[in-house]
Specification:
The protein is of the alpha/beta class. It is built from five helices and seven strands, in the order αβαβαβαβαβββ. The chain has a single domain, classed as 3-Layer(aba) Sandwich (Rossmann fold), CATH 3.40.50.150. Strands 3-2-1-4-5-7-6 form a seven-stranded mixed sheet, with helices on both faces. The termini are far apart.
């Protein structure tokens, strides 16, 4: 796995094989960051990466100059790997939390400009994730919630739905 853009472009990270993850593909990440870079000044956004897994999306944000990134994952191996990666790459802008993502977003906190959520595709709470985010008012007024999901799940009927993007087996629903 490699970082595909920014000052860390080309840097490889090698997560342990035993992590329960499905990393976002290079093609999907590159396409998503092309969209985000055209809408946001990534150096001035606050990002929340839910179900961060290997942390590759957090690393992409950091590589593109984002200075405030919060990464949340429940698996101790995932959080340990991301902490190790940030130390190895000398990245100080990523704060890693070992926590249940659903509980984390229900706590009062300052707003985020971008919330990226990549839950396990079969997680029973995926469909309720946007409702929890918008009810908790943790997304800033002009912010985006991006949910990565399987093609079987559709968010087009959600009142905050903005657009859907598909890159092979990877689907993003963007809400604002």
């Amino acid at each position: 796995m490699r970082v595909i853009g920014g000052y860390l472009k080309g840097r490889k990270i090698a997560p342990p094989r035993n992590l329960p993850v499905r990393p976002t593909t290079d093609l999907a990440r590159e396409s998503l960051f092309n969209i985000l870079s055209n809408v946001f000044d990534l150096s001035s956004v606050r990002v929340l990466d839910l179900f961060s897994g290997t942390g590759i999306v957090s690393l992409e944000f950091a590589s593109r100059g984002c200075a405030d990134i919060v990464s949340v994952d429940l698996h101790p191996g995932c959080t340990a790997f991301l902490k190790e990666s940030t130390q190895k790459l000398q990245i100080g802008c990523i704060r890693v939390h070992r926590a249940d993502a659903f509980r984390f977003i229900q706590k009062p906190q300052a707003g985020f400009d971008i919330i990226f959520a990549d839950p396990p595709y079969d997680h029973p709470g995926v469909k309720s994730l946007p409702d929890i985010v918008f009810a908790g008012q943790i997304l800033n007024k002009e912010g985006w919630l991006i949910v990565e999901h399987s093609s079987r799940l559709l968010f087009g009927d959600h009142p905050h739905f903005f657009q859907h993007r598909s890159y092979g087996d990877v689907n993003f629903s963007i809400m604002k």
